[in-house]
Amino acid sequence: MSLFAHRLSTESFRGNQLRLYLSTFAYPLLRGLRKQALVGTDLAKAQPQTLRLKLLKIAATIRVTARKIWVSLPRSYPMQAVFRQAHLALRC
Fold first, then answer.
1. pLDDT tens-digit profile of 4-43?
2. By residue range, what is the domain housing residue 84?
3. How far apart are CA 89 and CA 9, in angstroms?
4. Which of 39, 83, 86, 91 has the fewest CB atoms within 10 Å of its CB?
């Protein structure tokens, strides 16, 4: 319920249906993130809302070059170690 599935507030049926679909697709993605990338961290058993607020909603600077994508986190970001661990676990 913390992925906006309970809030169907648009005027049209299609808008509400799209919002519900996005929530439905987001939950397994966050569950997989917890299961594969966050093992052994404080966020391993966190709720989707907590993951969204602490791990995904961050102020990062993104630079795209021809060969790489650079993500620069602010120095004051408290979850840098967890973000780095998740990134390394998800790399191919």
1. 656 667 788 888 888 888 888 988 998 999 999 999 888 9
2. 13-90
3. 37
4. 91
